[in-house]
Every structure is written in structure tokens, then in C-alpha cells.
Design a protein that fits this description.
The complex is a heterodimer of chains A (317) and B (319). With 317 residues, chain A is mainly alpha-helical. Chain A has 14 helices and no strands. Chain B has a domain of 223 residues: MetI-like fold, CATH 1.10.3720. The chains are: A mainly alpha (317), B mainly alpha (319). Chains A and B meet through helix 1, helix 6, helix 7, helix 8 and helix 11 of A and helix 1, helix 6, helix 7, helix 10 and helix 12 of B.
């Protein structure tokens, strides 16, 4: 067990190192000179000035040296300064991270709230009309790209009914009401796909669980259907759901990039998008690594939770 | 692979292919052939909805493939209003069945040519995944050793990088984005998950009696890889591809929606939606049509994939 945890943590560190290095190389090898982000266009003709800037930002050193320097600073919490705004990257990230995290947390929370009863019910009524309806809807939900869902929601609830704002963001410090209003549509757009995914997973897991002998014996004892369903059936199935939520974080990150673009939300994804377009490679580097760290930590944590909760896995390893 | 980070596990959730492909019978090629025969007969047994989905996919694929030959189909990039013979945001007319967009281009023509972009992207990436991932995975699963350890570590690392972000990153940096570039960049992100599945399948195939038998009669290990392992890995790859196709179509449309797909004015569904979203209140149809095409095509693939999976599960349960 301990060996397993150490192994997972080592892999986590290695992954982060590899990804940060690959990103670093990628940003530097692909066309687009970072100097262009640093100085205005008319100054770019002045070769001497360009050289001076390159020297100043250490752009002339070999790539490995620059990566080493970046890594050394990053470990100490200094992610460098944005090439475009000159502000510390860390400041901007801490400013924007809460927005993206709130968006994702609300989306996942909302999805679970809908998907758990829906999946459990659907699995319990396997093959019946209600199950077929839920499964059909889940399949449809899975076929809607997030940006299409987002556009439909914008059209209906923002443009037509005008219940929610179509774009922009109100922070929690602006009051709970406005904040909830601005998170509602984007989170719901992300949630539709998540609900479909979770429901399908939980349903098929429930079907398998409900065929187990201990369910039969619980029924034979005379326990009510509802008690058996939630107490004996749902509990082991939830474990699978935890893993799926963890694995789906990657989709959620990609999805929030699109949703932040669509709803003009000043979160991390939108910043990454603009940073890529501006060739602001310090910003790109920092956000990409942050996302990877987040993704890998969530996945490692899911695995560990899984091991801690399920004694069968603990023993076999 | 790219799909899995864009939308992992949801689609593969119900039945992992590893288990169904774990029950392989000897004679790989015969198995493939019998699957094809079963498939032919099976179309008749489909539920009505799946049948509609199947027909729809055939229609879309044919239209996309033969777009240049369809009589009377407008030029997808022709802006009639520039030359005074067309209107912007027009409703359906005899010459424009689905109306025109906000620069007076024929929507139907753009939908059909857009299908071409989506389908070429998705099918090419699936092919790339099968070729690269299938080869690497089969080698890793059959030959084992340090190469396998290295490859699988690489795959694990690769998969922990959100593919959409990688794609956005590379396509923006490159600046040049035709279909070929998109497919090449996409393959960078597609191969890992195929490798993982191929390796798992190859691992289980390697333990089968017919592999031992082939070895016993003196077949070389390379021959076994080509003649026994790969043909048995292929069905698992194909099954996975069917799940991967809709995800790839969504991926392409998402990139186009972000303005990072094929360069304008080339028609793509995501690009059409992005262009139309500014004028939703003026004219919603230029957004509705591509969204509907996208949804129906993706749904059809999902529905068909689910059906195939159910059939496979039923068959392995019957054995």
C-alpha cells in the first residue's frame, strides 16, 4: 500500500516534469518569436534593440538552461512575468483560478445531483420504459458538444427570456445572487455532458451490482426496495462514479476553455487562449503546467481514494 | 488519446472492450470475416432508431464524398450579394433550400462541404490511431520487456495532458491550418489510447493456445506478430474507433468553433456556428442547421456504437 502510494507520487512528479519540459520546448520550437510579444512592431526592425531585449530576458541561452532556470523559479512559486502585461504570472493565476474552479465545481456538483438518482433509478428499472427514456436522453446529451449546449442556453435563457446574463462574470464578492446568476448557464452547459456520462456509468454499474447475491439476500430478509437500492446497491456503485468524475476532469478542463470563450468569462481557460494568441509564452507555460498538475493530482487522488475505500483493491496490491 | 481527455470514459463506460476482446477464438482472420458477415445480416435486425441512424450516416458520408457531383448544389463559398444576385440571411427558397448565411452563401452547400471536413478529420485520425497505436501496442503487448515499460510510461504521461489544450496550442502556433496539418497535429494526440487498448488486447491474445501452437511449429516471433497478434487486435481497435469517431467529430467542430479549425472560408460545422452566433436574434437558422447536422451525425455514431456493443455483449454472453 505504501509502496503503491510512493510509486504514484513518483509518477506524478515525473509526469509534471515531462509535460512542463515538452511544453517549454513546444513554445520555443514552434513558429512565433516571443520577442514579438515583448516589444511593439515598429521597434522589431531595430536589430540592436531586439538583441538587447533578448539578452535581457535571457532568450539567447540554450533551451535546457532556460528550462532549468524556469523550473528553479517555479518550484519556489515564481512563475515569471507575463511577456505582454509585465505582471507576475502568479498574480494573474491566483486572480483567475477561483473563477474556473467555481465553474467546474458547480458543474460537477450539479451533475452529480441529477445523475445519481437518475442513474440509480434507470439501473433499477433496467429495460423498462422509464429506463429506455433515461438512456435515450443520456445518449442525446452525450451527442451535444458543449458549445452547442451553451448556445442553446444563451439563446433561450439569456437572449429570449433574459433571465440570466449572456456573457461576463460577477465575482462572489459582488454578492451571491449576481455570482450565481453568472455561473448558472456556463455550469449547466458543462453539466449536460457530465450528467449523460455519469448517468450511463452509474446505470450499468447498478445493473451489475443488483445481480449480486447479497442484494438477493437483503431482499430475502424483507428489506424495502428503496433501502436495498440506496444502502446496498448504490454504495459500491458510487465508487466507480468517483473514478469517472476524476477521469473526466480532462474533459471538464477542455470544456471550460470552450465555455469561457463562449460566455466571455475571465477564467484561466480564456486567459490561456489569449496568451497562446499573443505568444505570451510565460503565461502559456504556467497555465499548461498548472492544468497538468491539477489533472494528474486529481487522478492520483481518485486512485488513492479508491484504494482506501475498497479493501479488495488494497489487498490485491 | 485525444478523445479520452476530451471526453474520457463516458462513451466507453458500459462495456470495456478489453473484456469482450479478451474472449478471442483462434483463427483471427476468420473471426474478422464472420464479423463482417454477421454485420451484413444484422442491419435488418436493428431497432428502427438505429436503422435511421445508420441510413443517416450513409447519406452524410455519400453526400460528403460526392459533393462535387451533386447537380445544382451551389458553390459553398460563393457570396451572391457581392455580385447582386443573392441576399444575406435569406429564408429557404427554390435555389437555396436551407437559405443563406449572413454573407449570402448557400447553407446547404456549406453543410455538405462541412461534412467533408468533419468526416475526413475523424476517419483519418481513427486510421492514424489504428496504424500507430495498433502497431506500437501489439509490439509492446507481445514482445514485452523494457520497450513495453517505456512505451506505456510514455502513453500514461501523454494521456495526462488535456488534448484540446494541446491542439489549441499547436494549431495557433503553427498559423497554417489546412486539413492535412490538422490531421497530422491530431495524430500526435490520438495514438496513446489506441496503443493502450492494442497492448491490453495483444497481452491477452499472446496467452492463447494458437499463439503457442504457432510458436511450436517454428513460426518466427515477427511472423506471429503480423499473422496472429495484429489480426486479433484489429477488431478491438475497430470497436474502439466507432466510439472514437463521434468524439473526433466533436473535437473538430470545437476547434472550428474556436476559430482554430480549417481556415476560412472553407466550410466547417463549428465554423458556421461560430459565424452565426453573432446574429442569433436576427436570424437563428444559420446556427440551427449546422448544430442539427452536428448533433444528428454524432448521435447516429453514438447510437450505432451502443448497438454494436450490445450485440457483442450478447454474443459473448451466449458463448
Amino acid at each position: 500500500m505504501q509502496k503503491m502510494i510512493v510509486g504514484r507520487l513518483t509518477r506524478l512528479v515525473v509526469t509534471v516534469l515531462v509535460v512542463s519540459f515538452v511544453t517549454f520546448v513546444g513554445v520555443n520550437v514552434l513558429p512565433g518569436d516571443p520577442v514579438n510579444a515583448l516589444i511593439p512592431i515598429d521597434a522589431q526592425q531595430d536589430r540592436e534593440f531586439v538583441e538587447q531585449i533578448r539578452e535581457e530576458w535571457g532568450l539567447n541561452d540554450p533551451m535546457v538552461v532556460r528550462y532549468g532556470r524556469w523550473l528553479g523559479d517555479a518550484v519556489q512559486g515564481d512563475l515569471g512575468r507575463s511577456l505582454v502585461t509585465g505582471q507576475p504570472v502568479t498574480d494573474e493565476i491566483t486572480h483567475r483560478l477561483p473563477i474556473t474552479l467555481e465553474l467546474m465545481a458547480v458543474a460537477v456538483g450539479f451533475s452529480l445531483l441529477i445523475a445519481v438518482p437518475l442513474g440509480a433509478f434507470s439501473g433499477y428499472r433496467e429495460g423498462r420504459r422509464s429506463d429506455r427514456l433515461v438512456s435515450g436522453l443520456a445518449q442525446a446529451g452525450l451527442s451535444l458538444p458543449v458549445f452547442v449546449t451553451g448556445l442553446i442556453l444563451i439563446y433561450v435563457f439569456a437572449l429570449r427570456l433574459q433571465w440570466f446574463p449572456a456573457v461576463g462574470w460577477n465575482r462572489l464578492s459582488d454578492g451571491l445572487g449576481p455570482n450565481l446568476k453568472s455561473v448558472a448557464l456556463p455550469a449547466l452547459s458543462l453539466a449536460v455532458t457530465e450528467i449523460a456520462v455519469y448517468t450511463r456509468v452509474l446505470r450499468s454499474d447498478m445493473i451489475a451490482t443488483l445481480k449480486e447475491n447479497y442484494i438477493l439476500s437483503a431482499r430475502a430478509k424483507g428489506l424495502t426496495d428503496r433501502f436495498v437500492l440506496f444502502r446496498h446497491g448504490l454504495r459500491p456503485s458510487l465508487l466507480t462514479l468517483v473514478t469517472v468524475v476524476g477521469l473526466n476532469i480532462g474533459f471538464l478542463i477542455g470544456g471550460s476553455l470552450v465555455i469561457e470563450y463562449l460566455f466571455a468569462i475571465p477564467g484561466l481557460g480564456k486567459r490561456l487562449f489569449s496568451a497562446i494568441q499573443q505568444r505570451d509564452f510565460m503565461m502559456v507555460q504556467a497555465i499548461t503546467v498548472l492544468i497538468t498538475v491539477f489533472y494528474v493530482i486529481v487522478n492520483t487522488a481518485t486512485d488513492l481514494v479508491y484504494m482506501v475505500v475498497d479493501p479488495r483493491i488494497r489487498r490485491t496490491n | 488519446m485525444s478523445e479520452s481527455s476530451v471526453r474520457p470514459s463516458g462513451q466507453t463506460s458500459g462495456a470495456p472492450f478489453e473484456t469482450s476482446s479478451g474472449r478471442l477464438r483462434p483463427g483471427g482472420r476468420a473471426w474478422t470475416r464472420s464479423t463482417a458477415r454477421a454485420f451484413q445480416g444484422a442491419v435488418g435486425k436493428m431497432p428502427w432508431l438505429t436503422k435511421i441512424c445508420f441510413l443517416w450516416l450513409i447519406l452524410v458520408i455519400l453526400a460528403a464524398a460526392l459533393a462535387d457531383l451533386i447537380p445544382g448544389l451551389a458553390d459553398p463559398n460563393y457570396q451572391g450579394f457581392v455580385f447582386g444576385d443573392g441576399k444575406t440571411n435569406e429564408g429557404p427558397t427554390a435555389s437555396h433550400w436551407l437559405g443563406t448565411d449572413n454573407v449570402s452563401r448557400d447553407i446547404l452547400a456549406r453543410l455538405i462541404y462541412g461534412a467533408r471536413v468533419s468526416l475526413i478529420f475523424a476517419f483519418s485520425l481513427v486510421a492514424a490511431g489504428i496504424i500507430i497505436g495498433g502497431t506500437l501496442g501489439s509490439i509492446a503487448g507481445y514482445f514485452r520487456g523494457p520497450l513495453e515499460t517505456f512505451l506505456m510510461a510514455l502513453v500514461d504521461t501523454w494521456l495526462s495532458f488535456p488534448a484540446l489544450i494541446g491542439l489549441v496550442f499547436v494549431t495557433t502556433m503553427l498559423g497554417m491550418r489546412n486539413l492535412l496539418v490538422l490531421v497530422l497535429v491530431g495524430s500526435i494526440f490520438v495514438w496513446p489510447s489506441y496503443t493502450r487498448i492494442a497492448r491490453a488486447t495483444a497481452l491477452s491474445v499472446s496467452g492463447q493456445d494458437f499463439v503457442t501452437a504457432a510458436r511450436a511449429i517454428g513460426t518466427s516471433r515477427r511472423q506471429i506478430l503480423v499473422r496472429e497478434i495484429f489480426p486479433n487486435v484489429l477488431p478491438a481497435m475497430l470497436a474502439y474507433s466507432l466510439v472514437g469517431l463521434p468524439v473526433l467529430i466533436i473535437l473538430e467542430s470545437t476547434l472550428s468553433f474556436l476559430g482554430l479549425g480549417v481556415e476560412i472560408p472553407t466550410a466547417s460545422w463549428g465554423g458556421m456556428i461560430n459565424q452565426a452566433r453573432q446574429d442569433l436574434l436576427i436570424n437563428i437558422w444559420p446556427a440551427v442547421w449546422p448544430a442539427a447536422m452536428l448533433f444528428m451525425t454524432v448521435y447516429s455514431f453514438n447510437n450505432l456504437a451502443d448497438w454494436v456493443r450490445k450485440q457483442a455483449a450478447a454474443r459473448s454472453a451466449a458463448i
